[in-house]
């Protein structure tokens, strides 16, 4: 056990440069603090990776690629440590079913991927589960407060335990961007509210261990922003739209709204906010400010205040939006690696 722990630590120490790409400003904004708490967050993050046998990477179904931590996936695969990655496509109730199917087909070329809808119930005990498969769920069931996909995910984890002949429990690390629903997934798997849940980034600040059953222990990791401006095509505005930075701490809330206006059909925003036709984000925000009476001295529309409200609507899922998977893309992991995982993470284990 000591040798295993040492090898794990050494393997991830060698990957340290990958974890240093985040900007201090983004980390401080994401956690809600002005001081640099990046090292503390990385320490908690690395604790999860080092101790996990299986890593669940939680993705937002509306933007799976935008919420993937490819650097961490590469770090796990390149470390030489025997770990497995499972992708969990959360919030499937916010996108059309056919879009979910496309993403599952795309992502399963690289990793086992589970469609998931976390429970939205507020009580601490007996969070509802549905045994209905996600691909067979009705619209009413998707809109309900019950969890979907938990049975499939737990079965996959237990299948891994059996396949590798583990006599003791496995530790499952939960990682992902802020607000992709890591704690909600854990609560749904546990069927009770064991983790705090917040709609703002930085809610989970330390790694939390939860015992799911005698075979499975879960480690919830704080959400960390890994993307630097310009890296993988991700601008500061793109990062803000992933709810990685608290809206109230944004110096410029206008630019992210410009991205929203560019992404969403004009008619959709006109109908949702009951505003007349507009040709730019500035016109859109001016109309909203006038409609809501958000005016500064002299009757000047307070577009910054209105922009923050629009961003909160975006982060809360009120503005409907989803992405399409690329038509073709080369995997960053080899097909031979995927094949070598064998039946341990076979999606057809039933």
Automatic annotation (TrEMBL):
Residues 42-227 form the CP-type G domain. It comes from the Eukaryota. Gene3D superfamilies: 1.10.1580.10, P-loop containing nucleotide triphosphate hydrolases. It is found in: Nucleus. GO terms for cellular component: nucleolus. One of its GO terms (molecular function) is GTP binding. Residues 1-35 are annotated as: Disordered. CDD domains: Nucleostemin_like. InterPro entries: G_CP_dom, GTP-bd, GTP-bd_ortho_bundle_sf, P-loop_NTPase, TRAFAC_YlqF/YawG_RiboMat. Pfam families: MMR_HSR1 (PF01926). Keywords: Coiled coil, GTP-binding, Nucleotide-binding, Nucleus. The keyword Nucleus applies. Signal peptide: none annotated. PANTHER family: GTP-BINDING PROTEIN-RELATED, GUANINE NUCLEOTIDE-BINDING PROTEIN-LIKE 3 HOMOLOG. This is CP-type G domain-containing protein.
